[in-house]
Amino acid sequence: ETSASASTGDAITHADDHPGEWLGHGRTWSEQRYSPLNAINASNVGGLHLAWHLDLDTNRGQEGSPIVESGVMYETTAWSMVKAVDAATGKLLWSYDPKVVRSFADKGCCDVVNRGPALWNDKIYVATYDNRLIALDKHDGHVVWSVDTIPHDADLGSQRSYTITGAPLAAKGQIVIGNGGAELGARGFISAFNAETGKLSWRFYTVPNAHNAPDHAASDDVLRKVAYPTWSKGGAWLTQGGGGTAWDSIVYDPVTNLIYIGTGNGSPWSYLLRSEGKGDNLFLSSIIAVKPDTGEYVWHFQETPKDQWDYTSVQHIMTLDLPINGAIRHVIAHAPKNGFFYILDAKTGEFLSGKNFVYVNWAKGLDPKTGRPLFTPGALYSTKGNLWYGFPGTMGAHGVPEMAYSPRTGYVYIPVQQAPDFYQTAHTMEVHPDAWNLGEETDASDARDSYQSLAKITKDLRGWLVAWDPVHQRAAWRTPEGTDPINGGLLATAGDVVFQGLANGQFHAYDARNGKDLFSFDAQSGILAPPVSYLANGKQYVAVEVGWGGGYGLYPSGLERRKPGSTNHSRILAFTLDGADSLPPAQAMSLPPLSPPHDYDKKSALAGSRQFALYCQWCHGNLAKSNGVLPDLRYSSAIADKGAFESIVGKGALEAFGMDRFDKSLSPEEIETIRQYLIWRAHQTLEEQATKGGKRAH
Ligand SMILES: O=C(O)c1cc(C(=O)O)c2c(n1)C(=O)C(=O)c1cc(C(=O)O)[nH]c1-2
Ligand SMILES: [Ca+2]
To answer: Which entry of 306, 389, 542, 669 is 20 to 30 Å from 124 by CA?
Structure first.
């Protein structure tokens, strides 16, 4: 018998024959993010050292989980670029830039991140922010094929604001990928392409066709029979696409021979405006199981019916074997944004158990038979018309950062957070190009964006790591609560260690059995990405990508990047027990003194606050406070010059750096109101700094 070589597509099927490799996003198809290596373990991890570091050529958010095969690490970075690196030394072997047009940045909600490559046979696959799926020769990075994943004649709503941030799935000779865009206006779907040729195999749309017409896709039947009746006849979903974007976890399970698709929130958010307050809106916020060869529907489980909270179910889908009532069941473990931990039968989708893993106020619990949430009255804010302070908020109780599972402890490790939000429906649906179109109140004057609500949210923010006992649905241990939500993804190892990088830039190792903090390293910038472990030249390494950004990293102002004082510096770091590398000293981040022009017009500035909230805040921070990743416009010298400001915002003077031109959306007069608003905010900030006795206020 010949054991499959690690370089064949088949190898991931037998990933446990290759404990030193990391061949898929979660290492094996179970997506457990568990490494069987134990040379680095709970008794010696305190002596871990940096072995090498590689500076990246982008300092946007880094969310990549690399593939490591035969001593080569393949990693993606912001802007969908790919690096092949000698996994033992960090030496760059080749790099590939798909040259995403930088002004495309604002077509997505949450930064130009990328969550990693896929491997099949001799090719590395990357999905790009501008929606291409590209196959590269793994030896030298040359393009073998490239396809546009968006069908141009499809019924996708009028916004069609698609971007890809997720890692492709490689399984059964196919490469499967979804996309994001539900905040701006999109209809979710996933596509499967032949791994060798790039030819489309099948498509599955996650929400109905607006005309209940066939898409000539694998989803046609189930959408017509099951999903369409759960939507209103009218409503903004017809033009906005409905949402349900599959922008993160898509998983193949060889045990059931099914692909599981996690689907996202509604487009627009407001359930009242989206679907006239009617129906459950399938398949929003669901897990859908389809056949890998054809995309044929098998089962679905909707975690959040009537979504109006941005409660995506795209989060990390993991499979494991769990003792339930005396029998071993093959199950899906899932901790979506909505704050409940679900155990589903992987073959049938049957709800087996569910329990909230954080404080939630939108549901009293789950129906023990069906798993359907028992809504609290105030949570259904869009139909009831109330302002809602929801736990979780739009960041979710668990976001992008991946979980891990250790079969040794039996715990699922979850990077969790408390991050509430205000919700309030708009009265009518307003749609703007190049903007978030939520059907929600987003004026700078409203609840979501006022200083008071920001202060309230800030006070309630927490993040921690929990070891969750999935059999008893309870926490086994948890790390002390920090004030940062959104900490990095996880790795568990056979050395009984759980690794995690934090928003504050510290990289930690915890004892998997009891949470004892065994090691920490100052990585100098916030960490979102999940670590991996592998062997190179027979030695165990733990590696992680560093760099702050992502959805949370850009938008919520005043909740600034939690590595105060240093610039956002992106790198790959690799650790060993005998490492001898060190990082150069962190560069201090300094903003110039504020020097706004003397005059501004208050009325114009107030009008500008609304334009800013519509078009600018998602990247430059709400209330014009940046988090340190993208420019803080209060400090920009361009606000002193009307012409310079207009040439940037209106005419694209900084397009090459990722700043789109807005002259299709904004008149020169409207752009001038934004400048007035920024001058006003700069003056307010100067006053705050003065009252804080010269201490820099944010
Ligand atoms: O609804 C969508 O289509 C969509 C897409 C994405 C994305 O593609 O990154 C995110 C979200 N939603 C989202 O709700 C969210 O919180 C989020 C965080 C991040 C990130 O990478 O930090 N992406 C996204
Ligand atoms: Ca979303």
So the answer is: 542
Cα four-point dihedral sign 100, 102, 106, 111? positive
Task: Give me 114's structure tokens.
Answer: 């990328």
Tokens at 618, concatenated: 């998602």
CA-nearest residue for atom 18, ligand 1, is 551
Dihedral sign, Cα of residue 301, residue 220, residue 314, residue 245: negative
How far, in Å, CA of 293 to CA of 204, rounded?
A: 12
In this structure, the number of other CB atoms found within 10 A of the CB of residue 511 comes to 20
DSSP strand E in 459-604: where?
462-469, 474-478, 490-493, 497-501, 506-511, 517-522, 532-536, 539-546, 571-576
Closest CA to 237 of 200, 204, 212: 212
Q: Tell me, what's the pLDDT at 455?
A: 80
Determine which residue's CA is closest to atom 19 belonging to ligand 1.
Answer: 551
Mean pLDDT, rounded, for 226-248: 98
Helix, strand and coil in the chain, % to nearest 5: 20, 30, 50
Instruction: Give the torsion sign (CA, 593, 690, 621, 359).
Output: positive
pLDDT at 142 over 90: yes
Q: Which of 248, 253, 310, 421 is catalytic?
A: 310
Give the whole-angstrom CA distance, residue 451 versus residue 435: 22
Structure tokens at 641: 């010059």
550 lines ligand 1 (CB under 6 A): yes
Instruction: Report every protein residue that has its C-beta within 5 angstroms of ion ligand 2.
Output: 265, 310
DSSP-derived letter for residue 599 is -
- Parallel, antiparallel, or unpaired: how do β-strands 388-390 and 421-423 relate? antiparallel
Ligand 1 atom nearest 486 alpha carbon: 22
Q: Express each pLDDT in 360-412 by its tens digit.
A: 999 999 999 999 999 999 999 999 999 999 999 999 999 999 999 999 999 99
Ligand 1 atom at minimal distance to the Cα of residue 312: 14
Question: pLDDT at residue 317 above 90?
Answer: yes
Catalytic residue status for 310: yes
- Look up residue 28 and give its two tokens: 């094996």
Rounded Cα distance between 321 and 4, Å, is 25
Structure tokens at 59: 């300092």
Tell me the two tokens of residue 113.
Answer: 């991140």
Global model pTM greater than 0.80: yes
**Angle subtended at Cα 645 by Cα 642 and Cα 651, rounded to the nearest 5 degrees:** 120
Q: Which residues of 634-661 are buried (b: 16+ CB within 10 A; e: fewer)?
A: bbbebbeeeeebbbbbbeebbbeebbbb
Q: What ipTM does this complex have?
A: 0.99
Rounded to the nearest angstrom, the distance between the alpha carbon of 36 and the centre of ligand 1 is 31
Long-range pairs for 204-207 at CB < 8 Å and ≥24 separation? 204/261, 204/288, 204/290, 204/295, 204/297, 206/244, 206/245, 206/246, 206/261, 206/263, 206/283, 206/284, 206/286, 206/288, 207/231, 207/237, 207/241, 207/242, 207/243, 207/244, 207/281, 207/282, 207/283, 207/284
681 φ, ψ (degrees, to nearest 5): -65, -35
Ligand 1 centre to CA of 62 (Å) is 14
Which 3 state secondary structure label does DSSP give 82? strand
Q: How far apart are CA 563 and CA 525, in angstroms?
A: 6
- DSSP secondary-structure letter at 559? S
DSSP-assigned beta bridge partners for residue 533: 542
Average pLDDT, the chain: 93
In this predicted structure, what is the pLDDT of residue 17? 81
> Which contiguous run of DSSP H or E holds residue 455?
helix 451-460
Asked whether 245 lines ligand 1 (CB < 6 A), one says: yes
Indicate which residue's Cα is closest to atom 4 of ligand 1: 180
